Structures are given as C-alpha cells and as structure tokens.
Amino acid sequence: MTQTRLKRRRTTLAALVVCLGLATSACVSSTEPILGDSGALVGDGGQLHLFDVEEGGTRNPRTYQFAWAGKRYVARGRPVEVSDFTIHAYEGRNLIVQARAQRPLRPYFYALARKLTDGVYLVTAIDPNDADEATRNRFCIKTRGAPCRIETPEQLFVFARATAAKETGRGKLAVLVRTKRR
User: Fold this and answer.
1) Residue 2 has pLDDT above 60, yes or no
2) How confident is the model over 53-68, as a mean pLDDT?
3) How far apart are CA 19 and CA 5, in angstroms?
4) Per the structure, how many domains does the chain have?
5) Cβ partners under 8 Å of residue 180, min gap 6
6) What is 77-130 written as a DSSP string?
7) Which pLDDT tens digit goes with each residue over 4-52?
8) Could you list the residue range(s) of the whole structural domain that residue 56 is in?
9) Is residue 62 within 8 Å of 9, Cβ to Cβ?
10) Cα separation of 96 and 165, whole Å?
11) What is the phi/psi pair of residue 158, to 5°?
C-alpha cells in the first residue's frame, strides 16, 4: 500500500463521523463534550460509506462500522481518527456531530451533517473561518494546540450557523447503511 493511500485511510471518518475525520486544524474544538443528551439518531449501527466531495464528483471511498453503545456511537474496523461520536438534532435538516479524537489529548471536534435524503448526509467540519473576524475574536479561545477552542453550546451554535450559511459543497458525503434489527 502506498504512503498516500495509507495516509488517506487514516485521515477521515470525519465527519458523519466526519466527523470521524474532523481532526483538522480548521475545526472548532473543545476539551470536553459540549452537547449532552444524545440519542441513537441514525439507528443502532451499521456501515458508514464516506466519500470526499470534490468538483466533478466524489473520491476516495472508505467504509467503517459504527454501533450505538448506550450514550455514543463507536467506530469499528479500520483505524480511525475518532474514538467515539454523538449526533445531535440542530436547525432544519442539519445535525451536529460531536466526535472525540483518538490523539493523546483527545479533543472533541464538531461537524455539521446536512441531510440530503434518507441515510445520505453532506458532512462539513464546523470551521471558525466561516465566521467573520469579530465573531472569531469574541467566541474563539486561542490556544497553542487549537486555533479555536470553545466551551459552551452558544459558541458552537454561532460557528455552526456560519458554516451552514456558506453552502460551499465541501466536505464528505456520508451514506449510512443501517443494521437491520433482529
């Protein structure tokens, strides 16, 4: 396996489990989970098929297993950047994904998952650069390890609204194939 292919496999489950690949420098992050009261919004588990969205189509297909573990989803199978994630209802057809990175400090990253149709989502990292400079100065806590650390749902929602307003089409296409109940 080439170094490039190996790197691609390791870099994403971002986002619906973007989030599972949301461990990027242009993401809003936190040291603790900000959103609570999560439920199994996308079922008990199944497979997540993830594609990079690029001009002219999608690329780099990846497949991951995910399962509901009582309070969160856990990703299984190939090595992923995220240890677990939760999904929360948001505004309109959007969901917010809160994912915990597997890196040593285990920060949480956030993504917006826009429902396109049943089981299909466009997942985009919540990017502080989608907001204006005054908003970033007011709501981002700048640290050596993170360009925009947040601590409250209010901060998260300000940046989620800015990302939702961009409608850039960037991100990951996530297709969920749910496990059938027995």
Assistant:
1) no
2) 78
3) 19
4) 1
5) none
6) SS--SEEEEEEEE-STTEEEEEEEE-STT--EEEEEEEEEETTEEEEEE--GGG
7) 433 333 333 333 444 444 444 578 999 999 998 888 888 888 998 888 8
8) 3-178
9) yes
10) 14
11) -60, -45
